[in-house]
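User: I'm putting together a small comparison set for a docking exercise, and I want a reference complex before I start. The sequence is below, and the ligand is alpha-D-galactopyranose. Could you produce the 3D structure with the ligand included, as structure tokens?
Assistant: Of course. I'll restate your input first, then give the structure tokens for the complex.
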Amino acid sequence: MSPEIDGRDGPEGRDALEGLAERFHAVYGRSAAGIWAAPGRVNLIGEHTDYNGGYVLPFALPQVSEVAAAAREDRTVHVRSLLNGETAEFSLDGLAPGVVEGWASYAAGVLWSLEQAGHRLPGMDLLVDSNVPVGAGLSSSAALECSVALAATEIAGVVLPAAELARLAQHAENDFVGMPCGIMDQMTAVAAEAEHALLLDTRSMSTEQVPFTLAQDDLALLVLDSLAEHRLVDGEYAARRAQCEAGARMLGVKSLRELTDDGVAPEDLPARLTDEVTLRRVRHVLTENARVLAAREALRTGAYAQLGEILSAAHASARDDFEITVEETDTMVETLLRLPASGDVQPALGARQVGGGFGGCVIALIHADSFDGLLAAVQDNARRRGFTEPTGFLARACPGARRLA
Ligand code: GLA
């Protein structure tokens, strides 16, 4: 039996989030005004393209961050996390980057960002819980930000379009938390739809819901957490972003996305970029944008063998040109693709590391029957190499942020 997380069971245990209303009452001695949720995400394809004005094709996971909230009469905010039992307390007056740090900065940053945009908020009591794996490249931070953004705006009677909510959450992460992320994770958390992947043009912010239902073709999307310790993640992420921006300057374009619009071919790049590292970074972004559009086409036409090849090509580009993979994830991808077919088990149609990089999760497009065999093979190989044994689950596309109660 494959452990599909359907919002009830699975390795991360949806049950952990039950009873948030009761817990809120126990902590704050009054009822919550409501409960809001925002999901983590898997990016099917389009890595490190979002801060280059490019295309991404993510979908939302069943795993969510939930927040129970109630307004206060004053400007004080309490935010308690059931993940670590800690409570942060601060005032909305004088809230500024650096005032709140650690996990609570994601929640505080969102409130700061909303107020910066002119939306006056009341103080509030918040209780947060989450079953989005942390540090796995599945956007647990965007899930937290967007669940708090939704709760805070509803409490304040502020109605914002999804894209604006996402932008304000990104602003919080960029300028309050200090992580220079793009818009993909927040936009997925608010705008994703069940059974669809979200094609997002991060320059125009236009979206297209692309039907994404693998089960009817006896296929599945396997998510494997390498559990590899993230190394230098934030510094390396910022460095990649800076290299892309330097590349755009050298090429005389506003963003690397323009290369796609101008029909620049990867072969044209060496004549225009003499710096070898910059060339490879730019080539990844250029070819990745093309792969996102090709993946959308493959999904539309049900060309799954081709979709698999596109995913694997994206991994090679992330490994060789963008240099954001690690031995653990490279080994997992290799095992998934090279496993000899036997009995029920067939190799994956395609596989790649997802998210910002340097560890985290690997996804694979697989024949649904091969789940157990592929997971066992990946775990065996990891053990043999002296790596932590990865965990795995099958994911399907779920809805974005919403009010639960
Ligand atoms: C992180 C960031 C995103 C995006 C990805 C890489 O998840 O938060 O904005 O840049 O990395 O595609």
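The chain has a mean pLDDT of 94. The first strand starts at residue 34 and ends at 45.
User: Thanks, that's exactly what I needed.
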